[in-house]
User: Fold this.
Amino acid sequence: MSPDSLAIEVTDLVTHYGPRIILDHVNFSARQGEIMVVMGGSGSGKSTLLRHLLGLHQPTSGAIRLLGKDITKMDADEMFDLRKNMGVAFQGGALFNSMTVGENVELPLREHTKLDDNTIRIMSRMKLEVVNLAGFEDLMPSELSGGMIKRAALARAIVMDPKLLFFDEPSAGLDPVASAELDELILTLRDAMNMTIVVVTHELESAFKIADSITVLDHGRILMSDRTAAVRASEHPRIRALLDRTPRDDSVDADEYMERLTREIN
Amino acid sequence: MAEKTGGLASFVTSVGMRSVQAVRETGYLAALLVESFYWLLAGFRRRQPVRMAAIFKEAMSAGVNAVPIVGLASFATGMMLAIQGIHTLRTFGAEDQVVLGIALSVTREFAPLITGIFVAGRSGSAIAARIGTMTISQEIDALRVIGINPVRYLVSPILAAMLLTLPALTIMSDLLALLGGALYCAGELSLPLPIFFARTFESLIAADVLQGVYKSLIFAVVITMIGAVNGFGVTAGAEGVGRATTRAVVLGSIGIILADMVFTFLTSR
Assistant:
């Protein structure tokens, strides 16, 4: 596998929140046109990893190469150009509440292209068509249901035809049908546009349905990053616990426990 | 005794923490101000221009929509100055000097101050609430990942709009306050309106009006930046937005009064 075919390459990523270490030497990569699912329980650091992949925070150390360029060493102008090739659908949608759905989807085109008004409108309607929201462009985000908000956010994320698409918790807060539809949509997008898609989720069923590769995070460390089948067959106890939905059974260190309880008490 | 030093230590700690916080916030405010001007002046060169349409939209909501309330407050203040002025000057038998008093105090002090306070209450809070809500709903992150600088998109247009509309509002406030004063004088001193205004424009020089206009420019910066800093600083959900909004109004108003004092001190010596 030549390094050119890697769309995402994270090497030795270390990040802190205050003095606390959140990501501890994280390494993983995703190939062009692949759907990579980042899985992990709450507090595993998967949201933090996503925010670093999006260039929203500066890591303590390590490199994040997107489409062959290290975003930790980029200046603002290079990052600005790269962002045109990135689409992001946030967990809560993060639609701009002061704009209609249509204006939300049009915004990236208005800011990054010099296309005329009608072209922009047609292109954004095409994307709304893709996510089955045709005819909803004049509604405000507050008038949409949870599933519609996620799909509208997806339409905004893909309106520039990005090479990289990031999707945070697509199924969170959705009923099983809506969440299955969203999974289908993600697969369609990859097949139709050959996007590299990173999906962050803790939803097992959806992860196995869409993933080509799965990266499992736990306490800020990568437990495994491999093809879906290999992860499914893994014998690692923590991964098994996650897959079989067994409660975690960490042994408690007595000294550490006392130290935690009495910390900062004199 | 041990408890007492503990109390003192925690007091010193809290004073220290607050000082660090204040210094940090001031530094952030200064950086934000520089960045806002940077995007206004150089945005088009970085392919991120500040849009005229956005500036006009902000000018409508911050400036034009403030006209009735600022106008009413200015008119009432002008009349109040006339009432107090005549009452005070009557003790010296010099009530016809009230025109000079009103003219100078309105243009140099009251018009910009009233305009500033009202705009701080209307727009300072709106800026903080809008940016704060966008921060907690990840809309600011969404802007950043789309490749839109949030300062360029949200703060620069408001700053430009405020710098355009606040001086205009101040001039309007000047005129309406003078009208309020003139109407009262017409009734109380039987001083016809044309004579009131003739005497006013005789005693005023351009520098008096300009001082008010310069002040309003400073207030525009103070209101916008304090609103924006509090908005971007929101962390704790809806409650945080409420707190930021209150803080933006309180700090904005006191900021205006302090800036006014410093500016007046520096220019009137």
In short: Chain B is about 85% helix and 0% strand.
